[in-house]
Structures are given as structure tokens and as C-alpha cells.
Amino acid sequence: MPATAQDVYGLRRDRIVLVTPEGDLLDYIPADGSVRAARDRQGRRVYIDSWGNLIATAMPAGRYFERYGARDYRRDRYRQVEGYPETSRDYFPPAPTEYGDDLTTGSVPDFRNRQPGSVERSELPEPLPGEGYSDQPREDWGGEDMAALPDGSMVFETVPGPRFPTATPIGKKTSAEVTALQVFLDREGFSPGVIDGKKGSNVTKAIEAWQLATGQTLDPNDTDWILEQLHLNGGMPFTTYEITAADAAGPYVASIPEDYAHKAMLPALSYTSTVEMLAERFHMDEAYLREMNPGVDFTIPGTIIKVINVGEPKKGKVAKILADKARKQLLAYDEMGALIAAYPASIGSADTPSPSGTVTVERIAFNPNYTYNPKINFQQGGNDKVLTLQPGPNGPVGTVWIALSKPTYGIHGTPEPSKIGKTQSHGCVRLTNWDATELAKMASPGVTVEFVD
């Protein structure tokens, strides 16, 4: 195609453009025989020169201009901040050296020992989990926005789950490099749970689910490839955020009591601090957020902090959900049977197991109340009366309740995201609040949910 065909103006959005590794349109026409065409790991057509260098990637014009043009909401969520060169789309820093000469993996800039500069704040387009939704349930969901946990009187059946391609072990990596991997998986819809810069079972499960969905092999030690994918899908893994007056104001509660009777006395089961709220907003572990911002007072409006550059929520229509008890992972499939998302989950226990076999989604409620009934629920403390707990992210079911056709069972959020996939639940399927919100927006009543061992 002529070089002018790649100009922004007048270009049909169904045409193909050639995009450089830096995200720009290729500004020349490769001479015949000077490049060869190939396919990358995601099946895209790429052009390589005689030295093996990537020259360009073929991409639909509509997709390119939505990603890099004026409508690029993902990139425009945050504004550039002076003092953070990694926020530049052209920035690829050198490999870290503090781990010795034997470190051969890629080059994600670390976040420590940096002082943020000035910033003009940009509002986040998506509400926080549980915010921006009515207290009343949607009519097409039916029922009331109430949730209750099961009594655990179910019987297990043995049903095998899918076989997953084994993940390549993660080698010696910096926390920033592991974070880049976690952010890549999170943006792809294969959640690693809380982003904390640490290797772990949730990251391994996410890699294996991504491989099952794509049919490709993901090398978690190839940081350069991961950076390239991040560059084309929202930018570098770290960005900056200015704490607003609304962020600092809350409302917050001083603490969340353990006893459900005391919980029921609170007007809302809100966040307990700005740190907890911001950590959930940016899919992070609280301790990691503090580590990234040493000495920062998160209660002061106007403070610039370092956070994770999360992507847009996964989009799609879920037709089937598979809850894999053995893997502690929830898998979401579309109507064609393709795996489109996966989330680490806490699923049942020996005393209060999850149901077996197939059930369906009955209704979905955001920011639900929670009803504790000692006659049908587990025993909590010395409580022997029915209690109604008010909504909030620190409620027993978090910010989302996806009710199942088996009474009192559901898929829901959690007040303790760092424990997801590492502990057991009281029979239900527990996800992080942000993962539960993402799934709830893709699911609908009638979706089948199959429990497998």
C-alpha cells in the first residue's frame, strides 16, 4: 500500500495498517525482498528484516486508531507525569543490574526511589466495585439484592475438569518484572488475583488458563515479549495517580468487627482506609501499594502515588461458567465454547463443600445486603438470630452477589482479596471484588455453572 494510505485522515477503518514496535504507523514502504512475513505468538502477521528485527505488525485500522487515537480511553485514563519516563510509550529502560550478572531476563523499570512530579488528574472512567450501581436489583435479574451463605450439607461428585498446558516455571525475576507479567494476564482477562509483584500459584494458574484459551505457550521469563504486549495494550505496567479530596474523605469505617452481630450494627461495611480503597481500585495488594509508595500519607489530597496501570475490564458474553474445585479457579466460556476469562477462586471446604454437578445463574446483584441465618448458614460466633448486614466491599460477599439455582449458593466478592485462591470458603465461590464485578457484567440469568473436581 502507498505510505499515504496510512495517514489518519480519510482512512477506512476496515483497512490494514502497519504498526511499528513503538506503536507508530510505518512511514515508508519496505522494498521488495527486504522483509519477510511471519506470524507472532498471537497469530498476527508481522514483518521481519534480514537481520531478524521486527519492522511492523499488521493491524486493522479501526483497532489501531481506537488504541492510539483520540478515542484511546485506556491510555487517556492517566496523564503523563514528569519524572516517570516509563510512562512514555517510547520508553524501554535497561535491564536491572542489582541482582548480579547472571540475570538475563528483561527490563521493567522499578518503582522505588522515585519522586513524582506534578500532574493534572484524570478521572477514572469506571466506578469502583460497588459504586455507581443502584441499591435496588435490576428488574430483569429478579429477586432482591440479598445474599446468604449455604449450610454446607451438599454431597461431592467426582467430575473431571479440563487439562491445562503446564506453565513454564518463573525464574529469577525482579518484583517489577513479575508485576509486568501479572498486569499482562490481568488485562487479558486471566486474573492473577491481587497484583503484588510475587510469583505464586494464582499466577501459574492464570498462565495455564491463558495457554489453554489461546493455544500458545507463554514464556513468563521473556520479559521483552511481555513488555511488547503491554505496549500494544494500554502501556507500561506502572502509572501515577493523584489522590482526590473524595478519595481522602471516604466514607470509611474505623474497623470491621469479626462478630456478625456487631457488623449488623454498622450503617455500611465500607473500606477502612484510603489505602484499602485504592488497592482494590488498582487490583493491588495493600502491602505492595505501600511498598511502592514509601512514606506517603494517603490521606492528603493532591498526593501523587505510583499505582498499577490496569486495563479495561474484559468484555464478552459468558454462556457457561466452570468452577474447578481442585485448581481453585473459575473459568468463563462464551456461547461457542471458547475460554474467554479465568479467575482464582476460593471454592468450598471439607466442612462446607460447594455443590456438585450443574446449576444456573438466577440473578445478579451489585452492592448487595447480606442476610445471616444461623438455621441455614454456618455457625458464626454465638449468633442465634437472623441478621441483616448492610452493603459494602467489606461485607461477607463483597460488592457482587451472583445467585445460583441451588438455594443460598452463589458466586461473590470478598473483603480479603489477598486470600483468594489460597483459602477455602463457606461453600460458595469467592472472587476478588473486581473479578466478581467483571464476571457479573458478562454473565446473565440462565448461564450454566458446572462444578468439577
Automatic annotation (TrEMBL):
Pathway(s) the chain acts in: Cell wall biogenesis; peptidoglycan biosynthesis
Instruction: Return the annotated region ranges for Disordered.
Output: 83-142
Q: Which PROSITE patterns match?
A: LD_TPASE
InterPro entries with a match to the protein in the record: LD-transpeptidase (IPR050979), LD_TPept_cat_dom (IPR005490), Peptidoglycan-bd-like (IPR002477), PGBD-like_sf (IPR036365), PGBDSf (IPR036366), Transpep_catalytic_dom (IPR038063)
Q: Which UniProt keywords apply?
A: Cell shape, Cell wall biogenesis/degradation, Peptidoglycan synthesis, Transferase
SUPFAM superfamilies with a match to the protein in the record: L,D-transpeptidase catalytic domain-like, PGBD-like
Residue ranges constituting the L,D-TPase catalytic domain according to the UniProt record: 319-452
| Gene3D superfamilies assigned | L,D-transpeptidase catalytic domain-like, PGBD-like superfamily/PGBD
* Positions of the catalytic residues: 412 (proton donor/acceptor), 428 (nucleophile)
The family note in this entry says: Belongs to the YkuD family.
What is this protein's record name?
L,D-transpeptidase family protein
Q: Which organism is it from?
A: Mycoplana ramosa
Q: What is the lineage of its organism?
A: Bacteria, Pseudomonadati, Pseudomonadota, Alphaproteobacteria, Hyphomicrobiales
